[in-house]
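tool_log.txt
---
The assistant was asked to compare two proteins side by side. It first ran the structure predictor on the initial sequence, then on the second. Raw inputs and outputs are pasted verbatim so the downstream comparison step can read them without reformatting.
(1)
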Amino acid sequence: MKRKTLNAAMLAPLVAAGMPQLASAQELNYSFIEGGASWLDPDGLSGTELGFNVRFSADLINGFYLQGAWDSWDIDVGPFDIDADVYRIGAGYRYSLQQATDLFFEASYAVFDVGPVDNDGFRADIGLRHGFGERVEGRIYGGYQGDGSDGDALLGADLLFKFNDRLGLSAGVETFEFDTNVFRTNLRVSF
């Protein structure tokens, strides 16, 4: 009996010493800016278009945060170059399911701008975000983007590898009804 108590007493300081690192490694950060390459694979056009993207998120209070994104491409359609931009700005709310897993909801003003056509509308997403240890976190989501009369369901997934607490590399894919696909690779700075 004394031996079990002694072993537990010796083990307790080691466990307590490791708890702050474990807790801080599992926190999900909602304040970042990232940017990088974006590939558009539209249905009906040959080839994939290379562009760029910028994304941000700013943690507010009580689980609320601001978020936004902008993707831009120059699409070659025969002899023409068409500018295509997809951007959104809005707010989100995260609900912690457990220490390293959040359920999130996002609502945004969204624009799909191709050449002279502007489709202003809205976007709504719901998903899960999870930290897989200190260096890796992932996110899966589904949503809808539309202009009131027409729209597309969407699915997406992102993976983030953290070099340290401030710097990381993310990769993601997003599909609009499996017709138009967007692939991204970004450098992320967290603050």
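(2)
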Amino acid sequence: MTGLQVLLTIIVLLVIAAIGFGIWFVTRRRALQNRFGPEYDRAVSEGDSRLAVERELRERERRHAELELRDLDPEARTRYTAEWEEIQARFLDDPTGAVSAADALVTRLIAERGYPTGDYEEHLANLSVEHARTLGHYRDAHEISQLSERGEATTEQLRQAVVHYRTLFSDLLGTDATPGAVHHSDVQDTEVHNARLHETDDAARDVPEQRVAHDVPHDTSSRS
């Protein structure tokens, strides 16, 4: 084999190796995109670099694989469903309290499924591996919950928070939709405030309007 042939062979091998590496790299990236869905896009848009974000997402996968997650037994699922129906019924007279109770119930369900009991950001990271497609609802609900704590949330925002919490709640519970305590046709449709909410328009009808709803912050500072 001449020197030229050796050189050409080396070049061909390098090209094949580069192609193989490229296919492997793209395959790994697509696997992350498929698994994390909208969470991947969000992380990339907020991160310093795509490679750094992908390293963080793979680290989430590694930590998630070490968790001892468990499904709920039928009795626990029935108990949680009943508690959720109570929250929706409570919204009629106490929307602020209903949102607070929904947040607490979701947090308790997260723990019972086997996820670590950490802060909100830790919940987001842990849930993103298997529940990425409903995580946006959790973020929206949490944001409204914080407004509610400051007495700055309107009644409609509080209703939307319950809808958002229910989307993640149903996902964690392992059901397509959590039944509502009140089903009636006179609940008016409201304008959704982001694209994700379009997916839960049917579920939103199960959350009743407050008895007297005004589009003003729901201040409970005078509540005993």
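---
observation on (2): Confidence is low (pLDDT under 50) at residues 179-205, 211-216, 220-224. Residues 69 and 114 are 5 Å apart (CA to CA).
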